[in-house]
Predict the structure.
Amino acid sequence: MSKLSFKLKLFIFSVFAIAVPISLFAGLAISILNPSSSQILSLIGIGLTLTLIFSLLSILLFKKIVNSHFKKLFFLIEKTANFLPQQVKILKGDDDVEQIIRLFSSFKQTIGNYTQKQSDLENFIKFEREKLSCILSNISDPVIGIDNNFKIAFFNKPAAEILGIDPDDSLYQPLSQLFKFFIKNKELDIKQLIPLKSPGFSGVLFTGQDIKTVSLLNNKEAFVDMTVCQLQAGIANNLSSILVFHDSTKEKQLEAMKLDFVSMAAHELRTPLTSIKGYISVFIQENEKKLSEDQMMFIRRINTSAQQLSALVENLLGVARVERGAMTITTQPMDWVQNVQTIKEMFEHRAQEKRLDLEFKKPDVPIPTIQADSVRINEVLNNFVANAINYTEPGGKVTIWIEYKNNEVITHVTDSGRGIPKESLAHLFTKFYRVPGNLDQASKGNGLGLYISKAIVDLHKGRTWADSPGLGKGSTFSFSLPVVDSIISDLSVLTKKL
Ligand code: ADP
């Protein structure tokens, strides 16, 4: 039977399903037209039995046909159903036709769901695009998108206005042909600015403050804080990175005006102060013995105040130099141990006055010659030792000691003084910072010495730090100076010779 063609099976089925009821109906009609016929009842009985048998046969045959001819369809549906959500399931033992109906209605529902989801997604994408474009065009900070070839993929209005991008001509131009970027007067190349990581990385690639941008189109200069981000699917979508800027040009100009004012005022104060200091010192020398103790006390106070004012003026000028990037150094080889010994001797008198024990612990190992600007680096050492004496109570101890490790000469100034609370350690080297507990020293300090010291050590490519076990437990201030390789090799030759 299974080998019979589909058409033949349908034909047999049609004969059974149509011919049998017609023949029975015909027999019944003849019997009714000829009422003498006594076989009416038996004819109806036979007709009904035959109809029942043939109907059963028809159903079985139809099922067979469906089974054989819809097998492939089932296979396909079953396979497809695996990819569909759970609502489509083939139930074993269900009627085949019922299964098909259920499957098709599930497909319809699923396709309906997908269509709904697709349109929801399209709406969502549209919404996100609108949101992004609204944010981009209305924020006051410049934003630039960069493609995989470091060309400009998009930019917003502030980018054109603040950074000097040509709104009509800059799209798809290489970033390096539109801008130069400088950090502390050093030009940054594009790979430093956008150090792309492997595709799939997502996060910040670069952050920088006070970056100067110069437009190569119209020489427009701006000062910006800048963040460069890479998106996870960015490279795959030809958007390697996004540059977000914060325009700090106005703040910078204001800062420059403040600096100009401070340094002008400091310069103006410097000359008369130098005269005051000079005359007082001559006056003290000449009149020390003629004046009473009280009169001398007042003169000494005037002298101390003039010295403090002079220190403040020098510090303000130093800060202005640091902030402008005008602090420069001229290095020369220095015998550091000898230099520290000299500074220690200079402070001996001050330490004795305050009844402090000042010690220089000479290193056990040879210390290589360092390259430093002797005037500037001694400003740092002076500041550390002066602070140690200043912030240590009489009877205490100040020790200067040197280490040589990892190609660095490290100088430490340890005192047994008032110490520094943990929360203050991170702020010590910032401008005008003074440890709150030390404010009784306000008349003496201005919180600028450590800031300038750090800037000087930075210029020497060294590091500056402070450590303290806590308030009342003393502290150690340290700075390192790197030793260049040629100097190390000189030293090794020298030690071998010795
Ligand atoms: P100044 O001493 O003029 O205030 P500095 O910048 O030299 O300015 O020091 C900043 C602050 O750091 C000081 O005001 C003081 O609170 C704290 N400090 C510096 N050195 C020491 C030290 N050796 N011990 C305790 N505190 C110190």
